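INFO  loader      accepted 1 record
INFO  loader      residues=492
INFO  predictor   begin
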Amino acid sequence: MARLVLAGKANCPHYAKAELLADYLQANLPDFRVHKIAQHPDRWEQWLHDICETNGWEHRQSPIIWRELLYRGGKGLLLGGVDDFLEYAQRYYGVNSMISSEEMLDIAKENLQAHMEIEKEEEEIKSLIKPLQIWITSASAPICYQLIPLLANGEVFGMTTEISIHLLDTDQFKEVLCGIVLEAEDMAFPLLRSISEHTEIEEAFVQADIIIVLDDVLLNLEVQSLENCIREVSEICQVYAPLIEKNAKSGVRIISAGKTFVNLKAMMIMTYGPTLKPENVIAVASSWESAAKAMLARKLNMNTGGVKDVIVWGNITGCNYIDLSHAKLYGCDSAIWGPANFSHPLLDMIYDSEWIHSEFLSAQNSLNSQVCHCVGMLPAHAVATVLRYWYHGSPPGEIISVGVLTKGQFCIPEGIVFSMPVRFQNGNWEVITQLEINDTTHEVLRHSADELIQEKLIALKEIEEMHPYGADEITSKKYLPQEMETLSTGSL
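INFO  predictor   done
INFO  writer      dumping tokens
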């Protein structure tokens, strides 16, 4: 049995004539097989040159036709062009081609259109199997070490989505990054297409789908002032943001995480990267949310996973507020039982209200310290959880705390990244604005917004130092009058 190979330009009328004859022969002769190769006109010349050079043939026109003799191991025997094929069909099979020139042109046009559609479909299929490009900054941090297995095991993006991880840090940590790369490769995660280390800032964020910013500034007020720490964060973001705009994909999603200034990092990346989509930049508050839930669960002697809808408001790593007014308990041991989706209001189950107003609220400062001293497991889990929700949606009806750019919700001034209750759905998030907040919460939100506004102004070098909440220098209309007026006069 011989197989005929017919190759040509997709828009070539002579290729169309040969194709029609080959199809007729294959349909009517039991031992005749044809394999067709249509090439885009722009790529035909190079393709023809390469195939002829490989086989030692001389041919310059479309189409080119050869026989692959299967009993000889598939060796190719050149027949020639369309005229040679017509002669071959007449001599061996007594078949002539009666196609008209007009029909040849119509078929050639259809061939080109079909070829372009097939190429488009193939590109779309390839795009579906291309791995997600994930960049992690300050990748020598312990959180990154804990985060990589969570990203690579398939639970975050799904069991069919491959990922490529790029670890970015300064040259002094190159050896650490190489060690992480080798260890990740040794673990042979099926969905980890590749992992690489990078120490050249110019090559950062190339084709990034996701960027996880872990950079932290040493917050030691004995070494440097708070204001200098804020300026250092601003300088880091001033380097990152233009590179993200230049190198990353247009729909890149950016997560600000870490132990210090997570709101500020997200805010300054948007400030210095004005073309980035604000809805694609968020700050992670889940570590504080989880720590608060664990403290409540210990008080109630129950599983932490049963504590839901604890809200972290405000400046996540600074002046934040843990709101229990909407919190619910599932699976709580009480006199009233119900199905798995039955819940109790948390405040109804903690009979010791004094504990809420004294010990729990005073422990919020220790929560900051506790989260900041985590070796990486808790913050890594927080990042992975938020990413999973972002891609696959948060549990129905559940409240998630995330730092997002404000648009005046809850009378919070616009233009700052503020932790608020959100839900994730269909690859997007939305603020849950239907929640009611009391006067106490409203006052705390004003305090936290004031702190974030001052951090932003210092980062932009519009003021020199932080001032106590309510100081005339900030609340006067000299700085952000519209925002502060909203805070002062806004009603619930």
